[in-house]
From TrEMBL:
Belongs to the glycosyl hydrolase 47 family. It is an enzyme of class 3 (hydrolase). Disulfide bonds join C455-C487. Its cofactor is Ca(2+). This is alpha-1,2-Mannosidase. Its EC number is 3.2.1.-. InterPro entries: 6hp_glycosidase-like_sf (IPR012341), Glyco_hydro_47 (IPR001382), Glycosyl_Hydrolase_47 (IPR050749), Seven-hairpin_glycosidases (IPR036026). The gene is MAN1C1. Residues 104-117, 162-175 have a biased composition (Basic and acidic residues). The active site is at E259 (proton donor), D392, E501 (proton donor), E526. Ca(2+) binds at T612. It comes from Anabas testudineus (Climbing perch). It catalyses: N(4)-(alpha-D-Man-(1->2)-alpha-D-Man-(1->2)-alpha-D-Man-(1->3)-[alpha-D-Man-(1->3)-[alpha-D-Man-(1->2)-alpha-D-Man-(1->6)]-alpha-D-Man-(1->6)]-beta-D-Man-(1->4)-beta-D-GlcNAc-(1->4)-beta-D-GlcNAc)-L-asparaginyl-[protein] (N-glucan mannose isomer 8A1,2,3B1,3) + 3 H2O = N(4)-(alpha-D-Man-(1->3)-[alpha-D-Man-(1->3)-[alpha-D-Man-(1->6)]-alpha-D-Man-(1->6)]-beta-D-Man-(1->4)-beta-D-GlcNAc-(1->4)-beta-D-GlcNAc)-L-asparaginyl-[protein] (N-glucan mannose isomer 5A1,2) + 3 beta-D-mannose; N(4)-(alpha-D-Man-(1->2)-alpha-D-Man-(1->2)-alpha-D-Man-(1->3)-[alpha-D-Man-(1->2)-alpha-D-Man-(1->3)-[alpha-D-Man-(1->2)-alpha-D-Man-(1->6)]-alpha-D-Man-(1->6)]-beta-D-Man-(1->4)-beta-D-GlcNAc-(1->4)-beta-D-GlcNAc)-L-asparaginyl-[protein] (N-glucan mannose isomer 9A1,2,3B1,2,3) + 4 H2O = N(4)-(alpha-D-Man-(1->3)-[alpha-D-Man-(1->3)-[alpha-D-Man-(1->6)]-alpha-D-Man-(1->6)]-beta-D-Man-(1->4)-beta-D-GlcNAc-(1->4)-beta-D-GlcNAc)-L-asparaginyl-[protein] (N-glucan mannose isomer 5A1,2) + 4 beta-D-mannose.
Length: 630
């Protein structure tokens, strides 16, 4: 290399000065890099960090971006089957949720994210404004779980390798059919009932109802995640835009605490966790705050109804002696724990832990949890026990709290298996025809009736089987399969091949409705929900076949010109429609069907727990969130 000679400086002297300068510059740039790198180790609350790094934190995250590229996709080769008892017993496909989290980029990971990238809307002014509009300071608490951290602590990409597309063409065709049903239900809602809570498909108008305290758009909030996982991009974007511009949380009406929580809070939370859109998180937390006054009772057990504007709360008029309902106050845990995660405020978790504590302490008749409890005295009001309506999702949230806590919530685990033992000892029955069912219990007297709502329990007992006592695991899986079989029987014994609201096992009846008032079907998901879980757990093809029977029946009897409708009598072929497309049809029934015909890597059960309205919420891996991430 030739240096041009400067006056008065020898070539060797110039070389020395240059190398000194070079070393100095090197040192300086090293120092700058170190300082900048150190920012990542500061807590989120430090101002300097927010100034330098806040932009990347608040961008909607798209799969395949640098945020996700580090999530390692470790596809478990099907984990060992636990030994089957005999030919008739169902085999358990073990679901280990304890895999380690690794963070390398893989091609599979990137492939899994393509669809999501295309979903991301440009951030509009309305959204940016709304991001700033909530009363809680989401960025100010160092415990706040950022979206990046959360994504890095998942074991697998949420949408799988190829959005869960099954390799088998027949299954894929069935999945496409379900997607078409969703689009049809959505398009009609959009056309005739946009912004209202539900579609009335016969009269082609909207229904508002009185469950949501003046909140609107229940079908929109309930559909966000379903549209998203199905890849219905335009529809998802319309739904998101409606949330941005029209979801008004400042309503002043009387709402069911339970319904607002499972549909609105749950729907917004899962939309946030799937997409990373801050808008959904902020709306969820803003709404969560409005629900808090319902807990202002002498025991902290919330009342069932709350005025979202004034915060006044009271019990349902039909609930005896001003009591609160087990399935209502017992179905808040999953959402409220996530509200604490996202807001950094412990209050949500404190509220639901207080409910848990009281229920754990109180004396239980035969180990059972009655459906009515006084929020004033903290005592049971009546001894009616049911795994169907009034009780159902309380049990569901116990096992799901345990799973969602990355299997660290031992109280929930103990309470769930304790309750299950009591249910087995007191409610599980075998009919003369050999069908296993769950009766209801009234102060020690059995009512041999099982509601459609109770059919979720096949799935619940199935997902809890693996964590039961080692000698009980296969038994629980068999019990789950038997209950799911009974619920399927209740469908096969009707003219329409759809199941009644309640069926009985007395007076010669076997899984059949004996009263006129129990013969209706309102597009409920519970039976299909159990097919989906049992499919994931066993891969027995009969569950997909049963799901397909339901699709055909829905198409034949519930599809009308402008949407889907419930029917008044499942036992007659000349159906009478009830003129209501329930929002849970879009959120649950069609989502579970879609998952049933998808590969297991679409919303893998190792990472996701579904709330009782089928909104997926991620497992919280505290050790990963706390320690591993910078
Ligand atoms: C849904 O809103 C939820 O599944 C709830 O837990 C029970 N009822 C409906 C569906 O049937």
């Amino acid at each position: 290399m030739v240096f041009r000679k400067l006056p008065g400086v020898s070539a060797s002297g110039m070389g020395l000065r240059l190398s000194q300068k070079f070393v100095f510059l090197l040192f300086l740039s090293g120092l700058v890099t170190l300082c900048f790198g150190a920012l990542f180790f500061l807590p989120d609350s430090v101002r300097l960090k927010r100034i330098f790094l806040s932009k990347t934190e608040t961008q909607p995250v798209t799969v395949g971006s640098e945020n996700d590229a580090r999530v390692h996709l470790k596809r478990p080769k099907d984990q060992g089957m636990t030994s089957a008892k005999g030919e008739t017993s169902t085999k358990l496909k073990s679901l280990s949720r304890k895999q380690s989290v690794s963070h390398e980029a893989t091609e599979e990971r990137l492939a899994g994210g393509r669809a999501q990238e295309e979903f991301t809307l440009p951030r509009s002014r309305a959204e940016s404004a709304s991001d700033k509009g909530t009363s809680l300071d989401h960025g100010a608490n160092s415990d706040t779980v950022t979206y990046k951290k959360f994504r890095r602590c998942l074991l697998k990409p949420p949408l799988g390798r190829d959005n869960g597309k099954p390799s088998d063409p027949k299954t894929d065709e069935r999945r496409e059919k379900v997607k078409e049903m969703m689009k049809f239900a959505w398009d009609n809602y959009k056309h005739y009932a946009w912004g209202k809570n539900e579609l009335r498909p016969l009269t082609r108008n909207g229904h508002i109802g009185n469950m949501f305290g003046g909140l609107r758009g229940a079908s929109i909030i309930d559909s966000l995640d379903t549209l998203y996982i199905m890849g219905l991009k335009e529809e998802y974007n319309d739904a998101k835009e409606w949330v941005q511009t029209s979801l008004d949380l400042n309503s002043n009406g009387e709402a069911s605490l339970f319904e607002v929580n499972i549909r609105y809070v749950g729907g917004l939370l899962s939309a946030y966790y799937l997409t990373g859109e801050e808008l959904f998180k902020n709306k969820a937390v803003e709404l969560g705050e409005k629900l808090l006054p319902a807990f202002n009772t002498p025991t902290g057990i919330p009342r069932g109804v709350i005025n979202l504007g004034s915060g006044t709360s009271w019990s349902w008029g039909w609930a005896s002696a001003g009591s609160s309902i087990l399935a209502e106050f017992g179905t808040l845990h999953l959402e409220f724990v996530h509200l604490t995660q996202l807001s950094g405020s412990p209050i949500y978790t404190e509220k639901v832990m207080n409910i848990r504590k009281l229920l754990n302490k109180i004396e239980k008749p035969h180990g059972l949890y009655p459906n009515f409890l006084s929020p004033v005295s903290g005592n049971w009001v009546q001894h009616h026990v049911s795994i169907g309506g009034l009780g159902d999702s309380f049990y569901e949230y116990l096992i799901k709290s345990y799973l969602m806590s990355d299997k660290t919530d031992d109280d929930a685990k103990k309470m769930y298996y304790g309750a299950l033992e009591a249910i087995e000892a007191n409610l599980v029955q075998k009919s003369p025809g050999g069908l296993t069912y769950l009766a209801e219990w009234r102060g020690g007297i059995l009512d041999h009736k099982m509601g459609h709502l109770a059919c979720f329990s096949g799935g619940m007992i199935g997902i809890g089987a693996d964590d039961g006592a080692p000698d009980k695991r296969q038994h629980y899986l068999d019990l789950a399969a038997e209950i799911t079989h009974t619920c399927h029987e209740s469908y096969t014994r009707t003219a329409t091949k759809l199941g009644p609201e309640a069926f009985r096992f007395d007076g010669g009846a076997e899984a059949t409705a004996t009263r006129l008032s129990d013969r209706y079907y309102i597009l409920r998901p519970e039976v299909i929900e159990s097919y989906m879980y049992m499919w994931r757990l066993t891969h027995d093809p009969k569950y997909r076949e049963w799901g397909w029977e339901a699709v055909e029946a829905l198409e034949e009897h519930c599809r009308v010109e402008s949407g889907f409708s419930g029917i008044r009598d499942v036992y007659t072929m000349t159906v009478s429609h009830d003129n209501m497309q329930q929002s849970f049809f879009l959120s649950e029934t069609l989502k579970y069907l879609y998952l049933l015909f998808s590969d297991d890597d679409l919303l893998p059960l190792e990472d996701w727990v579904f709330n009782t309205e089928a909104h997926p919420l991620p497992v919280i891996r505290n050790s990963c969130l706390r320690h591993h991430w910078r």
